[in-house]
Design goal:
The chain contains 14 helices and eleven strands. It is an alpha/beta fold. This is Enoyl-[acyl-carrier protein] reductase II.
């Protein structure tokens, strides 16, 4: 038993990313039932929708699951109250100061994990009293750190600074990637893009099929002036690049982004004008599979790779 399986009382140290428009109760419960830790992504849910997903998840699995909460969420107080009222015992926080809610959540017997993109923020999260930290490299899909530190570089840097359990995220979709992250100092991994292309993902089929057709170089980190985000290069992405040629103001970028672009792309399936968030690792995702099969394949791959290491002698 390692630190992550012990902390969450799960079989495998694999956590599913709480991705907006992808991570409803069907995906979270499927991952938890398969031995990982499923997360409901609160960032794309109105409070009462979140309550509904938590209640359905409790019926769909008897295993531990959690909720991912971006702390910039406008209804954060209501979201936290629902999480406590519904008896959720694991919360992953992101996009904000961990000091704001960590102690309150822990007073309510909730295990708290915070997502960071640098060792500086990892130390702040540890000081805030979190139970574990997710260090996410800039290979990851969706919103990202401005530092552009890769997972391979970030994990050992964070490991050197903190003592709490460490979860690696960004560019991990295979058992070999999981083993590499753990060799570098992680205790477990968080997987986003691979589960976005799962059968149980709440994303639109158009988006899922686009993920499996992504090749190396088809994603890019952009919109750093607002909040850095990794997108598939579609028409909307190209519109952003065209606007950059005109040295736009921040307000002009906000106007182009508009509202609900992520929903339009990932949930409603608009592949032209929608925001399509996915990680660089999508280049090796070739099929849509059930979450249980994804976890099974990762563990098999992990065990094979672990045995191969012993043949690397010099």
């Amino acid at each position: 038993m390692n630190k992550i399986t012990d902390l969450f009382k799960i079989k495998y140290p694999i956590i599913q990313g709480g991705m907006i428009w992808n991570s409803g109760y069907k995906l979270a419960s499927a991952v938890s039932n398969a031995g990982g830790l499923g997360l409901i992504g609160a960032g794309s849910m109105y409070p009462e929708i979140l309550r509904e997903h938590i209640q359905k998840c409790k019926k769909a699995t008897s295993k531990p699951f959690g909720v991912n909460v971006p702390m910039l969420y406008p209804n954060i107080e209501e979201i936290i109250k629902i999480i406590i009222d519904e008896g959720v015992k694991i919360v992953f926080t992101s996009a904000g100061n961990p000091k704001t809610w960590t102690s309150f959540l822990k007073e309510n017997d909730i295990t708290v994990v915070h997502v960071v993109s640098s060792s500086t923020f990892a130390l702040k999260a540890q000081s805030a009293g979190v139970d574990a930290i997710v260090a996410e490299g800039f290979e990851a899909g969706g919103h990202n750190g401005r530092e552009e530190t890769t997972t391979f570089t970030l994990i050992p840097m964070v490991r050197e600074k903190i003592t709490v359990p460490l979860i690696a995220a960004g560019g991990i979709a295979t058992g070999r990637g999981m083993l590499a992250a753990m060799i570098l100092g992680a205790d477990g991994v968080q997987v986003g893009s691979r589960f976005a292309a799962s059968t149980e993902s709440s994303a639109h089929d158009n988006f899922k099929h686009t993920i499996v057709n992504v090749h190396e170089g088809d994603t890019q980190l952009t919109l750093k002036e607002l909040a850095p985000v990794r997108l598939i290069k579609n028409k909307f992405y190209q519109d952003i690049q065209d606007l950059y040629q005109q040295n736009p103001t921040k307000e002009e970028l906000i106007t182009l982004l508009g509202r609900a672009r992520a929903k339009r792309g990932m949930f409603q399936g608009d592949l032209i004008e929608g925001e399509l968030e996915i990680g660089q690792i999508a280049g090796i995702i070739n099929e849509i599979q059930p979450a249980a099969k994804i976890i099974e394949d990762m563990i098999t791959d992990f065990e094979i790779a672990k045995k191969e290491i012993t043949t690397f002698g010099f």
